[in-house]
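Why this split exists: single-chain examples teach little about how molecules sit against one another. For that reason, every record in the complexes split bundles all components of an assembly together and asks for one structure covering all of them. Below is a record exactly as it appears in the raw files.
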Amino acid sequence: AQSVTQLDSQVPVFEEAPVELRCNYSSSVSVYLFWYVQYPNQGLQLLLKYLSGSTLVKGINGFEAEFNKSQTSFHLRKPSVHISDTAEYFCAVISTGGGNKLTFGTGTQLKVEL
Amino acid sequence: ETGVTQSPTHLIKTRGQQVTLRCSSQSGHNTVSWYQQALGQGPQFIFQYYREEENGRGNFPPRFSGLQFPNYSSELNVNALELDDSALYLCASSLGYSGNTIYFGEGSWLTVV
């Protein structure tokens, strides 16, 4: 079984400042890693994913994440946030060979302020 | 726009009733999964269908059941509704599994009173 921990339930940040949303996972097998964004009253949109290869993954809207196997982390970063980035962000994992069952963290609410 | 459509978008049911939620997956996608997202929580996996067969189930009771049709659209049925079933129900589709991108619909908001 696998689990995902998002340590920060809320992250306030000023517009144009950098941000990092933290994600740690636990699994006895190899995993694929994902970040999804959820805007108010909407479904989930994929930001980026790590399957294999380069540990630095670039996604949409200027986001990137780095896979760190030794620390079992997959933190999401953006060098300069915009008001429109205000949303809920979910980290998720799938165990390799485990079908498409996503295990999600509890989410981090990113609030960008002027 | 993910190409995954769900209906209805909102509905209110009374405790003890039954509900059917529907999902039309993205064209060509043969794998459909359903998730329950309670308020303030991350989505929880209910079950997955691959080519009309259930091939994975989360920790949900048997009163949560589903179907996948030959055109790969899907239904989620919940019997004997309880107040705690109030949540956003998300449908997700993909082509096969193991890393292929999973696309989510906008969800169906269910309120049980």
